[in-house]
Design goal:
This protein is an alpha/beta fold. It has one domain: 4-Layer Sandwich (Purple Acid Phosphatase, chain A, domain 2), CATH 3.60.21.10. Helix content is 28%, strand content 20%. It has a 5-stranded mixed beta sheet. The protein has a 5-stranded mixed beta sheet with strand order 4-5-6-8-7, with no helix packed on it. Helix 2 links the parallel strand 2 and strand 3. Helix 6 runs antiparallel to helix 7. The longest helix is centred in the first third of the chain and has 10 residues. The protein starts with a strand and ends with a helix.
C-alpha cells in the first residue's frame, strides 16, 4: 500500500514555517526532510520538532548537513550535534520514488528548468524529488517542492505531497512578518539577511543571476 508522503525540503531552521506545514500535512504517512534542515535561526527547536514525528520522519543529507559533518557550520554545531545527521543517506527511496537534495549524485548542483546548463542526466528514476534551489517546479518525472523555510517567488512555506506517484505542489501561508522579526532576535549571525530574504524572496531571475 502506497504511503502519502510530505516532502519537506530546505527548512533552514525556520521552525515557524515548519510548524505551519506540519499542521497542514498532519495526516501524512511519512515526512521526508530533503536536506538543509537545521542551518537557520532555530536549529535546536527544529530538531526537537522533527524528532517529535518519530518513525514517520525520514531524512536525506544536504550540503548543510555535510558542512556540519565537516566542521564548517559552527552556528548549527552549537545547537545540533553532528552525530544527528551522520547516518543520513544522500538518497532515499520510498515507494519507488527517489529523494535527494540537489541531484542523485551531488548535494550542491543547481538544476532548474530555467537554467540552460542544467544537467538532468542523473535523474533516471520513475520519479525523483530534489531540492537545493528553493524553486518549486515539476518537469516530467522530476519534482522540486521548493523551500519550507527560505522561499523564492513569494513569502510562504513551499512543499509537496507525493501519493502513489501523484504529486501535489503546495504552499502554506503563515505569518512571515512575525517570523522575520523573531529571526532578527535569534542570535544567528546571518539572521538579518535571512529575515530580509523571507520578507522579499528572490525571484527566479535573481536566483539565476546569483548562480551564473
Amino acid at each position: 500500500m502506497a504511503m502519502r508522503v510530505a516532502a519537506l525540503y530546505d527548512v533552514h531552521g525556520n521552525v515557524r514555517a515548519l510548524e505551519a506545514v506540519l499542521a497542514d500535512a498532519g495526516d501524512a504517512d511519512a515526512f521526508v526532510f530533503g536536506g538543509d534542515v537545521f542551518w537557520g535561526p532555530w536549529p535546536r527547536e527544529t530538531l526537537e520538532l522533527v524528532q517529535s514525528l518519530g518513525d514517520r520522519a525520514h531524512f536525506v543529507r544536504g550540503n548543510w548537513e555535510r558542512y556540519l559533518l565537516e566542521g564548517k557550520d559552527e552556528w548549527t554545531a552549537e545547537h545540533v550535534p553532528a552525530d544527528v545527521v551522520r547516518e543520513w543517506p544522500t538518497t532515499l527511496t520510498l515507494d519507488e520514488v527517489v529523494y535527494c537534495h540537489a541531484t542523485p549524485v551531488r548535494d550542491d548542483e543547481v538544476v532548474l528548468p530555467q537554467l540552460e546548463r542544467s544537467d538532468w542526466s542523473a535523474f533516471t528514476a520513475p520519479l525523483t524529488v530534489c531540492g537545493h534551489t528553493h524553486v518549486q517546479f515539476q518537469v516530467d518525472r522530476i519534482v522540486n517542492p521548493g523551500s519550507v523555510g527560505l522561499p523564492t517567488v513569494h513569502a510562504a512555506a513551499w512543499w509537496a505531497v507525493v501519493d502513489d506517484g501523484d504529486v501535489e505542489l503546495r504552499a502554506t501561508a503563515y505569518d512571515t512578518v512575525a517570523a522575520a522579526d523573531a529571526m532578527r532576535r535569534s542570535g544567528m549571525p546571518e539572521a538579518d539577511e535571512l529575515a530580509d530574504q523571507l520578507l522579499e524572496p528572490y525571484t527566479v531571475e535573481r536566483l539565476l543571476e546569483i548562480v551564473g
